[in-house]
């Protein structure tokens, strides 16, 4: 916990925020100030605004916490406490849930030492810890917590109807927050479907309760979080009509197959019912929303892909990580893959009554690993979720020698932190063998002007429209009353493209863009990756000229930042 709080103690909790955390704080302030519950437009981004793909399911508890603390600490203090308290509470919940999963999966005598090893592995899940640092109020940490809760409850479906119901609710809530866990939850649901088909009557009741809870809670959440008119929109990057059809339809399908089993309690009958229900559901989805087959980034303009999206670390695929930062492969993927192998061996060796918890755990972990191969940010959940299964597998496979100290030592050796350190230590050798053509330098968020304090000097200017690099947008919104055109969100295609075109264009063309957009201020950051890319791609473009100190007639320099990291100009009328 001290390590997670360290960034906030050195630079302040507001500067510890990522771009997404800063935008979340802006959304919370707008909601508290009176913006409508169903109004998810960020009105100060690319005016008249951009409809965000985020969920009020996270805004609700965070805004409630700020409102509770505000009478005691003032607005600024309430926000600061929330930024520190929220991720700490969620990290505590993760440790408790991980220990509960270890207890559920292990033998009685091995439970205490297995839980200790689980806590160690969870705390050393380095790829995920960034989501639990002070300042982390984005939705990823809550989704990981709900993933843990879902896995714990899903392993109990055979035993408890109440836990089956809660499993359906936690799955719906996770997906209502965001779709990052959809592949893992879908894989677990397929395993539950398989349980019903194979076991029939003995699990029909809890599985149908799970399906009913999944469908009912998803519909309830949709009614609470989404305006009715939005349900017909083909929104494929967030909780909405398309995926509500899959989630609620999947739950109804489970109930339907369980009902058919009551009428025709045979394996063939259940298989036929599942095939019809699944085919109808998937057919309806692809017929009504064919665009959802494509990547959510398919609509991002090629120019923005080049200047922004390809540089976003969390969206890189396994192939790009291997190409750019091969030394990180072991830290991102080693631990989940080792755990997957150990869990498969544990499944093979376990008694038949204990197999389903292992099956649902394995398919969930495999889906998380698969997600991380597409986007490396999936490695965060994969590493953390693997922690209890690794500890339990080691304790079970090493039963005769796995005393407490030995198990903890084994856990430490295979932990994500240890594997990541091995990869980093071997970096010279790896680069010599693979000879990567490109590397990604570690980014200093302060030097690249992405922190709130970096752009705070702009708050002294009269509110206006600011044309600034993409990654500066959320900080400017959080620190000032200005409006920005660019921010790191794929739905902001128009505003981001306008900013890139303005920065790359010759002064005359750039002036026309600024005039058309009614821009009041132009801002650049000397150390930002954007500025370096602009200079390299267009040496005579507006950004390159401004970086060299060449000010065109239509701009007036503003002396705001004595460090000269952030430079601003007023657009002359």
Descriptive notes:
By secondary structure, the protein is mostly helical. It contains 24 helices and seven strands. The protein has helices at residues 2-11, 19-32, 56-105, 111-123, 126-129, 140-154, 161-177, 182-199, 201-225, 241-263, 267-288, 302-307, 318-324, 329-349, 355-374, 378-397, 404-414, 416-425, 427-434, 473-479, 493-504, 507-516, 529-537, 542-547, and strands at residues 41-42, 50-51, 465-467, 483-484, 521-525, 555-558, 566-571. Strands 4-3-5-7-6 form a five-stranded mixed beta sheet. Helix 2 packs across helix 3 (56-105) and helix 2 packs parallel to helix 20. The relative contact order is 0.11. The model has no long low-confidence stretch (mean pLDDT 91).
Give the SSE layout.
Blueprint lengths: L1 H10 L7 H14 L8 E2 L7 E2 L4 H50 L5 H13 L2 H4 L10 H15 L6 H17 L4 H18 L1 H25 L15 H23 L3 H22 L13 H6 L10 H7 L4 H21 L5 H20 L3 H20 L6 H11 L1 H10 L1 H8 L30 E3 L5 H7 L3 E2 L8 H12 L2 H10 L4 E5 L3 H9 L4 H6 L7 E4 L7 E6 L2
Parallel strand pairs: 3-4, 3-5
Antiparallel strand pairs: 1-2, 5-7, 6-7
Uncertain parts: none
Number of helices: 24
Q: How does the major sheet shape up?
A: 5 strands, mixed
Overall mean confidence score, pLDDT: 91
Overall number of strands: 7
The global form is globular
Helix content: 55-70%
């Amino acid at each position: 916990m001290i390590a997670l709080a360290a960034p906030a103690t050195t630079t302040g909790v507001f500067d510890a925020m990522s771009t997404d955390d800063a935008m979340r704080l802006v959304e919370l302030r707008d909601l508290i100030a009176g913006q409508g519950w169903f109004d998810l437009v960020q009105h100060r981004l690319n005016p008249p605004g951009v409809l965000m793909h985020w969920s009020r399911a996270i805004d609700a508890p965070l805004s409630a916490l700020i409102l509770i603390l505000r009478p005691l600490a003032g607005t600024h203090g309430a926000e600061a406490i929330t930024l520190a308290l929220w991720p700490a509470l969620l990290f505590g919940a993760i440790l408790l849930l991980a220990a509960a999963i270890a207890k559920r999966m292990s033998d009685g005598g091995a439970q205490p030492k297995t839980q200790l090893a689980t806590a160690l592995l969870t705390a050393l899940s380095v790829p995920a810890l960034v989501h639990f640092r002070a300042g982390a109020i984005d939705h990823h940490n809550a989704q990981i917590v709900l993933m843990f809760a879902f896995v714990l409850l899903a392993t109990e479906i055979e035993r408890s109807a109440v836990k089956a119901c809660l499993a359906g609710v936690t799955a719906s809530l996770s997906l209502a927050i965001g779709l990052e866990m959809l592949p893992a939850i879908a894989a677990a649901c397929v395993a539950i479907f398989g349980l019903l088909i194979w076991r029939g009557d003995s699990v029909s009741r809890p599985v149908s309760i799970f399906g009913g809870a999944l469908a009912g809670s998803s519909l309830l959440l949709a009614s609470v979080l989404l305006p009715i008119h939005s349900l017909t929109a083909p929104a494929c990057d967030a909780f909405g009509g398309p995926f509500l059809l899959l989630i609620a339809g999947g739950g109804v399908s489970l109930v339907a197959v369980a009902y058919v089993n009551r009428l025709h309690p045979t394996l063939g009958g259940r298989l036929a019912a599942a095939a019809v229900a699944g085919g109808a559901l998937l057919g309806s989805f692809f017929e009504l929303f064919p665009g959802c087959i494509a990547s959510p980034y398919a609509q991002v303009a090629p120019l923005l892909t080049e200047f922004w999206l390809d540089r976003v670390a969390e969206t890189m695929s396994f192939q790009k990580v291997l190409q750019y930062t091969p030394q990180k492969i072991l830290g991102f993927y080693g631990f989940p893959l080792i755990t997957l192998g150990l869990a498969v061996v544990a499944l093979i060796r376990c008694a038949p009554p204990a197999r389903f918890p292992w099956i649902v755990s394995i398919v969930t972990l495999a889906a998380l690993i698969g997600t991380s191969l597409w986007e490396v940010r999936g490695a965060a959940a994969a590493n953390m979720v693997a922690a209890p299964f690794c500890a339990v597998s080691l304790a079970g496979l090493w039963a005769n020698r796995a005393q407490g100290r030995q198990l903890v030592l084994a856990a430490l050796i295979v932990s994500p932190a240890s594997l990541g350190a091995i990869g980093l230590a071997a970096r010279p050798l790896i680069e010599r063998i693979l000879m990567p053509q490109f590397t990604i330098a570690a980014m200093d968020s302060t030097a690249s002007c992405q922190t709130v304090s970096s752009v705070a000097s702009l708050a002294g200017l009269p509110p206006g429209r600011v044309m600034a690099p993409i990654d500066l947008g959320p900080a400017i919104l959080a620190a000032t009353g200005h409006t920005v055109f660019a921010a790191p969100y794929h739905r902001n295609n128009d505003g981001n493209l306008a900013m890139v075109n303005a920065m790359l264009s010759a002064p005359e063309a750039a002036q026309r863009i600024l005039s058309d957009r009614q821009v009041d201020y132009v801002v650049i950051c000397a150390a930002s990756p954007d500025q370096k890319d602009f200079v390299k791609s267009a040496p005579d473009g507006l950004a390159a000229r401004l970086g060299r100190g060449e000010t065109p007639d239509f701009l007036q320099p503003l002396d705001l930042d004595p460090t000269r990291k952030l430079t601003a100009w007023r657009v002359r009328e």
